Fold these 2 entries.
Entry 1:
Amino acid sequence: GQNIDQPTEMTATEGAIVQINCTYQTSGFNGLFWYQQHAGEAPTFLSYNVLDGLEEKGRFSSFLSRSKGYSYLLLKELQMKDSASYLCAVDRGSTLGRLYFGRGTQLTVWP
Amino acid sequence: ETGVTQTPRHLVMGMTNKKSLKCEQHLGHNAMYWYKQSAKKPLELMFVYNFKEQTENNSVPSRFSPECPNSSHLFLHLHTLQPEDSALYLCASSPMKTSTEQYFGPGTRLTVT
């Protein structure tokens, strides 16, 4: 089966930096996505990595190491509104549009 | 209206009822998806439609029946559900190409009593 692991919960304070890790073991790899989901709302796209390295987008950055089966999402200058679930998803490239999701990491940002 | 919309947002149904969930996307995408999101579990893909054709059925029980009349609309028909089917059902759409982000609707919170 496909295995995508991420921590269940994390907490941090406003203004801090937090790193959410995701490790994966999948048969095939065609990219990794991060989504943000606020309680009761739709998941929204944050980032996509297919090559090794760091992709920066404002306060959010995402890193990928394909050889290690590892990614992280880095959130800087945390704000209260960043409290949400962060979902890691892998595209195996097997079927168009088929994504395999982790269970999500619930981040709580305290004042 | 823009993005992906879903109706109803909340649904309570008995095990003998028949109901339908509706999804509509206004993004010009050709691929649409149904996902199930249960507490403490990964987001679980149920069905994929590309250009109105079903390309994936992820071993979903027959009490869930999808319908895709055109590239903008997707339905999920429900009948004789079980309490364990209670979950958030999310619809998503994307362009029909590899490695592209999916756009999710707000979901239907389903409770089966």
Entry 2:
Amino acid sequence: QSALTQPPSASGSPGQSVTISCTGTSSDVGGYDYVSWYQQHPGKAPKLMIYEVSKRPSGVPDRFFGSKSGNTASLTVSGLQAEDEADYYCTSYAGSNNFGGVFGGGTKLTVL
Amino acid sequence: QVQLQESGPGLVKPSQTLSLTCTVSGGSISSGDYYWSWIRQHPGKGLEWIGDIYYSGSTYYNPSLKSRVTISVDTSKNQFSLKLNSVTAADTAVYYCARDRGYYEFSFDYWGQGTLVTVSS
């Protein structure tokens, strides 16, 4: 199971939108609708922002939108705010034969 | 509100065994609705899944760590534990326990605050 590929960095100005990609294979991202996204601020635990590709847990603003096309999932953050500056990680179930999944390498989102 | 809290030594000597416990409150491990996970993060790096356990004791491990990892559960205490043996400096990391939404999910909705474990003599 190889890690999912994310860009190391992304940026945008307050109020703008930014999209972070997460590329896998047909054995993970492309094969299942079980992609999740996490936000991690420095020194804090990750926080689930999106699950099952596009579902938001209670309390997550609707500025966060998840989608998937083929082997690539995306997280779009609209109306950027200063507090959105954080590391973002994707995960995908990848275990038709083996339990478990894979993490992306993470993307540092900077709000300019 | 579900809460998870890791506990255990912050310093482990090389070749010894790292042992951590996660105490769950606000929800029962025995409910059977979720799996319970250990995840680690090397300093300044990304996240690495270590393994999951179900309340029944069924375990699932990252193949790259499987030979050194044991995860166990104590439903009477609402706790689950991690043992990683033969540690080296490469095992220095923040260790998180988390709740996995389900067998086909690999999606972690509640996390502990994390505990830094340093491997050093």
